[in-house]
UniProtKB/TrEMBL annotation, chains A, B:
Domain HTH lacI-type: 4-61
Coiled-coil parts of chain: none
Domain of life: Bacteria
Protein name: LacI family transcriptional regulator
Length: 340, 340
DNA sequence: ATATAAAAATAAATCGATTAAGCTACTTTG
DNA sequence: CAAAGTAGCTTAATCGATTTATTTTTATAT
């Protein structure tokens, strides 16, 4: 018993496939097809469990009911959570997700965009690396909806959902200063993406306000964690005077904790720590680590809402919107209890 | 400038699209097409950056160059890592991944399988919930390659990649016993999937061997973590005599640590802990928590290798293979240094 | 009774590829 | 020199849907 096609249905019912197609696409009324026929076709289709071949459908209509999701790295808890939430809402709205990890690699991302185009995805959700401005511009020019998140491309006028990065680190750093810390470093991955620039700036602003000198260490990202640990270890060994550090991402923060553990640096007694992105590692550390929690649900929610809206108002180019969400500084004391 | 089709190429070069197609598919020699023409076409295609429409291609050939990946929950670090590794190797081999989270929900999984079929994915990678035996059977009957991992369906004869679950918990439990612990519980999510049954059994075997009585607590899974914490807290409050616990998954282990933190139970002084699945939370806990590390890379590697092999030997039904990998008990002492 | 409009259904083109089968012109061969 | 072979392309069918244009049937008005 091979797969049924619309022709099989039409033949079996002695009607034309056109009729079947109209009925199946809810255009029966519009095309004034007799109620009894509609009934008969609907029933039979239900009975034999016929499903239209979506490839053929996509080929003809140009719509694939698929959304392309490009994150930095799907194995990063932050992106994994967002992907999960987006996935759920996409499926509920009849869309499937094709995802991929860009690794912040411009060339790879360009190829992936081409791959997505090739597969005729209806919409794009991208946490963009730099250097893909032209490609995104082209997508927009071709009328394809694009929503960015976590960061955006300043030169490209498109919708994006972000958090208030600058205020987040500013606020976190001020928190440390108010607690009496005086030698506060900012450690993060080397990146000139918008979110990271803002995070560094927020830190610097806070220090400037109190007339401290900023100490920023940028680590070059590497798949191999050893290559992150090494330079960071060297940095901390060199700057013995530090009494606090703000980490720019969960990953770099986690590496930092590993290093402190190895070096026997006590957190927060020897070194106060605040990391961007909150997750179990920080919550369970003892004592738990203060973290800048991103509103993951809200981010995912906004991203998919904006995209779905664009998908449904095809052609009508609504002015692009940028949504900036607030983060939540999860202050965790030196008590061993979980505050969260 | 809209997208070029093969007809555009053919017209422009004044050849038939058949010729272009043959050349593009590397069948020029076979179809004895003149070298100069091949040259001319290749060059022009390169020049204008023509890419065949993959939907049309898939419709005609029946191949979509897509692999469907169904995990329990993409936001779980274990599955996220595996997904990431599989993704990488799939892309390298010209395959794209469509993924989804099953939530171990039978009905949802059935629908997702249908969705995948509908999209003509070439191969399936599934961490299967129970109850989808018939659906998988049908896939196999229709000649579609399926590889399972993390667990398998005993009634279905298909390839799968797993770890030695029984020995893993047996070994971990014995380790605790040898350390002198006498009241060891096993806490996990309620599940009758193969991997979980084996994990429980391994624990029981070890206890039986030493004539201890097993204490197994099965928590009903819930999206809302509160609903996991609550019954588990009740369990630990009730069993004050426990001095050690083996957790069946990373998620349940993490919840356990949160509870101990709340209750002020010191790990491992008041309660020794070993959890299945290793990740940063366990490594960074102080003192770090002993964990049963799954060979994530190997699992992903084997899964994709087996699947690619099946995809390349289409039709030739090779006997199905089961691959059982070894886990690694990461023993972490009470020293504060990272052993890992 | 006939022209006209409305209702109901269909034929055929199309989306963009692949591929079996066929055609033409030239070269071999007996 | 005619028959057979082969090199080099092309024609047309096909995959499975959607959709435009068209036809057939029935109802209504004149």
């Amino acid at each position: 018993m091979k797969k049924l096609s619309i022709v099989d249905i039409a033949n079996e019912l002695k009607v034309s496939k056109t009729t079947v197609s109209f009925i199946l696409n809810g255009r029966a009324k519009e095309k004034r097809i007799g109620e009894d026929l509609v009934e008969r076709v609907t029933k039979y289709v239900e009975e034999v469990g016929y499903k239209p071949n979506s490839l053929a459908k996509s080929l003809r209509t140009g719509k694939s009911n698929t959304i392309g999701l490009m994150v930095e790295d799907i194995s990063n808890p932050f992106f994994a959570s967002i992907a999960r939430l987006i996935e759920d809402r996409a499926y509920k709205n009849g869309y499937k997700i094709i995802y991929c990890s860009t690794d912040n690699d411009t060339q790879k991302t360009k190829e992936l965009i081409n791959m997505f185009r090739d597969r005729h995805v209806d919409g794009y959700i991208i946490a963009p690396p730099e250097g893909i401005e032209d490609d995104v511009e082209q997508l927009l020019k071709d009328g394809l909806p694009v929503v960015m998140f976590d960061r955006h491309l300043p030169k490209v006028n498109t919708d994006y959902v972000e958090i208030d990065n600058l205020f987040s680190t500013y606020n976190a750093t001020r928190h440390l200063i108010q607690q009496g810390y005086k030698n506060i470093a900012f450690v993060t991955f080397a990146s000139s993406q918008t979110q990271m620039m803002a995070r560094v700036q927020g830190y610097k602003d806070a220090l400037k306000e109190s007339r401290f000198t900023p100490v920023v260490k940028e680590i070059v990202f590497n798949q191999d964690e050893e290559m992150i640990i090494k330079p960071m270890t060297a940095f901390f060994k060199k700057h013995k005077d530090l009494d606090a550090v703000v980490f720019g991402t969960n990953h770099v923060g986690t590496c930092g904790l590993k290093i402190f553990s190895t070096l026997g640096v006590k957190v927060p007694d020897d070194m106060a720590v605040i990391s961007f992105d909150d997750y179990d590692v920080f919550k369970l550390y003892s004592p738990p680590v203060t973290a800048i929690a991103q509103p993951v649900d809200e981010i995912a929610d906004n991203v998919i809402t904006v995209l779905l809206k664009k998908l449904n108002t095809k052609g009508v180019s609504t002015a692009s919107h940028s949504i900036i969400l607030k983060t939540n500084l999860q202050i965790r004391g030196s008590s061993s209890g979980l505050k969260d």
